[in-house]
Each structure stands twice: as structure tokens, then as C-alpha cells.
Write a structure and sequence with these properties.
- The protein has about 170 residues and is of the alpha+beta class.
- It is about 30% helix and about 25% strand.
- It is built from four helices and eight strands, in the order ββαββββαββαα.
- The strands form two sheets. A six-stranded antiparallel β-sheet has the order 3-4-5-6-8-7, with helices on one face. It has a two-stranded antiparallel ribbon with strand order 1-2.
- β4 and β5 form a beta hairpin.
Length: about 170
């Protein structure tokens, strides 16, 4: 990891305890994942633990699903990578590095990460997070522009989350 000095130049920052210091040290068998990666379908159970119920979001790197954690009968969010992202090592290893980093954060303004791994039978890389339901910021702004006080309250929450992540060497 590196961070900027006051002069704007990179300096080495030691990795957090237990975290992979480089992408190459992330233990991921990419060949095994690529050889059997299916599309994630509704009703499938990931790693014997998370039953996929519905897709709730899709982005450049993958999809997010509403799922049920079977052992606790609780709703969770499961993020998976797009199959196209598996063609290169860097996106997959970054996915796992970010999952490991995020799982070490514990702050009221940061979504909690519960689990991550690869479903051995399916070869699906996944990340399990707490499921947050409600309106997105985009939805709120599309309904009505935020007044200054509301925007300031939201930015304060974001700032507190960033301060927490920074204090743990994540940002």
C-alpha cells in the first residue's frame, strides 16, 4: 500500500495485520474459477449458505443480490463478479482484497461485510454484506434536490466513515 506524503509523493504504508500486502498474495485459484463460473440464477444457493432471491443492483464489475443467510434466516446482500471480470487476475484479486479490508471495518456509517469466498462447486466469487433497504441517494435527489442542511448531515456521515477507515489505514 502507499499513501501520499505532504509533498505529494508516495510513501510505503505497512499493510494491516492479516491483510494481503500485494495482489499476488491473495489466495485465489483463478483457473478453477474461470473453468466453471455459471451465471447466478434466482433460487441458487451460494456456498451452501446463501439462497439468492432477487437481483437488486448491477454495475460495471458485477451484480448484487438480495439473499437469505440460511443458518440465521436473515436477509443479506450478496455481491458477485461478472464472468467477464474473471478474464484477468487483477479484478478478481482486487475483489477479494477489498472484501478483506472492508470486513475489518466496524462503523455505523459503513456497510458491514459478513463473509467472502468462492463457492467451490460453482466457482462463483462472492461477498456477503448486511442488506440495507431504503432509498438510494440517487433516488432521493431525483425526487427533490436536497436542502443544504440535509446534504450537510449526509456529508457528515460520509466524513465520519472516511475518518474511521483512514484511522485503520484503509484510505
Amino acid at each position: 500500500m502507499s499513501a501520499d506524503n505532504e509533498d505529494g509523493k508516495d510513501r510505503d504504508v505497512p499493510p494491516l495485520a492479516g491483510m494481503a500486502p500485494t495482489l499476488d498474495s491473495v489466495p485465489v485459484d483463478l483457473a478453477a474459477i474461470r473453468s466453471r463460473y455459471p451465471s447466478v440464477e434466482l433460487g441458487v444457493t451460494i456456498d451452501g449458505k446463501y439462497r439468492i432471491e432477487k437481483e437488486i443492483g448491477r454495475g460495471g464489475m458485477g451484480s448484487v443480490y438480495r439473499a437469505i443467510q440460511l443458518s440465521m434466516n436473515r436477509p443479506v446482500a450478496v455481491k458477485t463478479l461478472k464472468q467477464e471480470m474473471l478474464s484477468e487476475d487483477v479484478p478478481v484479486k482486487r475483489f477479494f482484497r477489498e472484501a478483506k479490508s472492508a470486513s475489518q471495518l466496524n462503523h455505523p456509517n459503513i456497510v458491514r461485510v459478513f463473509d467472502f469466498g468462492v463457492d467451490e462447486a460453482l466457482g462463483v466469487p462472492y461477498l456477503v454484506m448486511e442488506l440495507l433497504e431504503g432509498r438510494t441517494l440517487t433516488q432521493m435527489v431525483e425526487e427533490k434536490p436536497l436542502d443544504e442542511r440535509h446534504a450537510a448531515r449526509l456529508m457528515m456521515q460520509v466524513t465520519k466513515a472516511l475518518v474511521d477507515a483512514h484511522s485503520q489505514g484503509m484510505v
